[in-house]
Design brief:
Blueprint lengths: L1 H18 L4 H37 L3 H9 L1 E4 L2 E4 L1 H39 L3 H8 L6 H41 L2 E3 L2 E3 L2 H21 L1 H25 L1 H7 L2 H53 L5 H18 L1 H4 L1 H26 L6 E3 L6 E9 L5 E10 L4 E5 L6 H8 L6 E6 L5 E4 L10 H6 L9 H10 L15 H4 L2 H15 L3 E5 L7 H14 L4 E5 L11 E6 L2 E6 L1
Parallel strand pairs: 5-9, 8-12, 8-13, 10-11, 11-12
Antiparallel strand pairs: 1-2, 3-4, 6-7, 6-9, 13-14
Length: 576
Amino acid sequence: MRRLGHFLSDAWTLAGPYWRSEERWRARLLLGVVIVLNLSLVGMSVLLSYWNREFFNSLQEKNAEAFWALLFWWRQTDSGPMPGFVFVAALYIMIAVYALYLRQALQIRWRSWMTREVLDRWLADRAYYRVALTDPGTDNPDQRIAEDLRQFVDNTLALGLGLMRSVVTLFSFILVLWGLSGPATILGITIPGYMVWVALIYAVVGTGLAHLVGRSLIRLNFQQERVEADFRYALVRLRDNAEGIALYGGEADEKRGLRERFGAVMGNWWSIMVATKRLTFFTNGYAQVAIIFPFVVAAPAYFAGRIPLGGLTQTAGAFSEVQGALSWFVDNYASLTEWRATVLRIRGFLGAIDAARAAAGTGIQAVPDGGDRLVLENVTVSLPNGRVLLEDASARIEPGEAVLIAGPSGSGKSTLFRALAGLWPFGHGRVHAPAEGRLFLPQRAYLPLGTLRRAVCYPRDAAEFGEAEIREALETAGLGHLAPRLDEVEAWDRLLSGGEQQRVALARALLLKPRWLFLDEATASLDPEAEARFYELLKERLPGTALVSIAHRPAVARYHQRALRVRDGHLVAAPA
């Protein structure tokens, strides 16, 4: 019970904020309408149970007038005026359609709000980057945002509304069933409303057995979400790195890796199938027995002449409604296990985000208080395993200065680059940096999804720049042939070569005109002549921009005034 309470608390932690958000009144109104419509369906079911009794009584009595009136018009009965079936059915259909439509409208609004909120939290304080470094157990954030949030909203509404409807159905039909079933004497004991107690015992026994049979599905559904996401992620990586795989001839290894991941999907799926088979044997058997069971229980009264045929069918129908309401847990057990797995995955993901954001001020602290200069103050850079790459580094870079950071491969230059950007959490010390006007160009230029115009202007809004500015930046960077394609939507990171992508990054720098420009092997894919032209353009077009470069080619040094060299874990000033 304690675990159930903890789980329900987690579910409310996820759901509650939406119902207290800026959309709360619209959401509550929409939910209220959906609830009213669902309760109306219960009322219609009660009405249909009485209509069903009168209809079958008319058949038993061979009363054609009553038969046709109950189908197409209305008839005065012992229960009061009874509308014809065509009116009842039309109203039932109308209510059912709008109950579903408005529930779906609520689902999409709720999912949209949750997606925006989770994206805001994931992207804030660069939590997305830190989570990937510090919490590898939080797998596949894309799947948790795109799929788990959808499932959580859908299942929460479906299960919540279904439970509410079952509770109302239970109390509505208990009254009907209690009045119809009468007392029964067993072993000298008179039991009033005996059919109600029979339905209760039947449902309680079924619920307990369903939990025993199907409880392994909770763990298996959680595991299935993870292995499915792992397999999908491997396929995406293959697509994104198709050229490198093709050049290495790595198809056989990729196939082995994909088969291993898919094997995990299939292995867990077979386990789910076995568990589901056991649960389905039970639930289907339980449902089939429930069809005939009320007739068996009520048949003695019918054969004794105490109730007519219509009364028998109404009694059986009311019993089925009560038993079905009491069996809500049995009928929804598989959905409940999926819902629980989804709640656990989302809570784990949000917990990792919160931990990452809480730790944003720890480790190496990037403080935007450097004024017009960049200052490293006793910075120690480590790897996640604790190995120190750079110890107690201090340096100062003035505005407009060009400084080269050099050193052997693996010495920690790129990790220092990340620390300068405020990304790297492992280590300690402070980086005092200008608050604005910084642009970082990594070795692999990032090109976002969408048009080439968006890629050139990234991360600024393309609407901030004129057509002529963007075209001139492309032309200057040696990509004038792409200017007519500015508004084409392509996978530009796969369509352009590595050198062309770095030229897009150059065009981006020329367009954004940062006061501080940091480059980490940003010209590695260019030939020496193109690299020289790259730096000449930066010096010519951005004369007041401070330039901090990481590069291996000695020729790059002449475009810098001095160097900071990484030697034996220390940062040493040296001539460029």
